[in-house]
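TODO from last week: model DONS protein.
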Amino acid sequence: AASAVPGYSPGFKKPPAMLRLKRKRLRRSEPAAAPPPCGEAPPEGEGPRRQPSPLAGRGSPGPGARSPSRSRPPAWPCSSFLLESVCEDKPARRAELSERTDILALTDDLHLPVAVPEVPSSPRHEFPADWSIKTRLLFMSSQPFTWAEHLKAQEEAQGFAQHCRATETNLPQSIQEPKLSTELRCAFQQSLVYWLHPSLPWLQLFPRIGADRKIVGKASPWSQDEALQQVLMSDWSVSFTSLYNLLKAKLCPYFYVCTYQFTVLFRAAGLAGSDVITAVISPTTRGLREAMRNEGIEFSLPLVEESRTRKQKNSEVNLETEVANSLDVGEEPAPSDDDDESFSWLEEMGVQDKVKKPDAISIKLRKEKHEVQMDHKPESLALVKGTNTFTLLNFLINCKSLVAVAGPQAGLPPTLLSPVAFRGGTMQTLKARSINAKARVHLAYEDIFSLEIVGPIMPHSLHALTTLLEAAQRGAFSAVLYTHEPTAVFNADLGTASPALNKETVHKDLTACGLHPKTLDQLSQCPTLGKSSIRFLEMKDYAYTWKS
């Protein structure tokens, strides 16, 4: 049995790649020189030993075959970086692997980065707002995270109460004894709270896109029961409407609607630089966009329009060349992707009668092809503003394609995620655990303290946690952020910035939205990350640098 082998460690994992050393075979014409052994020189008078034939061992050993009792590792050419891996005795190697088993397994579990990615050279006292949903955070620091372990019942209850009452917690810049700070521990519990609907404890309801393999095989009594599906959707509609009413009243800053095909982010007026309510949908399909148009919902595709404007500017330089080539060859010019069918530029050049214009059917087919090509991509993001968000609310409630009709998610309503309480919502907490590991630095092992947060981590939670760590870890920590990729495009600048919006107006209007004033300051800024999100965050001397 494997467990009986001395030094065997079941937790040790085979490395992904192995270093292989090839030995150059000696030609017959060349003299056989004895390779230098790794450990000590061979005895005097002993020449180079011939390698046994590959066929030796199939039958009886030949006269030149080596006895099993005298078998020794081959004497390969040595180098400084191979001494430890090639020339090490097996018992000593097994002992070392056994001692390092826990470290390697833990490091693999933490997914610690091998190399720190490049970060901006200019540190700032605040990092930009990240509207993507994170699935996992891994904070690392030279200071322990013992203050985040084993919260007392009173501290946990106080944290829940502070969340429900939207209590502002202002910590000092540095806490000398974090483990003894009740205020810090209560604020940590407060930062882990979020609200969810529906609540089915045996199912993981986020993420929903690509979650079929995690849900398959789980009990879903509603999948074949239409009456139960109607009850679930009716309850979901009440919760969805409640969230929108809170958003409109500026009592909820934002919330997410996560379906099995797309995600919708509703933001209150004053956030992301907009002075009206906005809803961002990604990814979309041609069918969804057509259904929204049929319902009278006015929306825009800002990323498509931005790309189109960029192409138009680039094409103006080569416009005359293209027209000249089409006149010489007599070919029909390619139709434009623009919405209008105007060819006024031909009239301006005086060649409108010499160039054949594409017919309306060709233009329509080209547009449809272009729309289908961007389906399910970040560029298909749709933006809905103002009163059209209420029309979108009714559309989503009555949309039959909002819920899967087959598969593991059949009949399951979309997931609602919110930073504040709403009707039908269930209080949930992110999972947190602190882990201590050792990493080899140069010739010694150093302690690495880490704090792992798992769950649907929304923007306000990320900012609240980093604010706590700033005080508890004395302004020095790093973090690896794992993003739910379909939501990374929510960081794009959609051109909704209002010049009349200022900091005082935002704080006055959203003072009761449940966010800390510093978090509100961050989320009210215009997005600057583009279609990406923050992957690595580091604080040194109370200043942030990041990598997206």
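Done. The radius of gyration is 32 Å.
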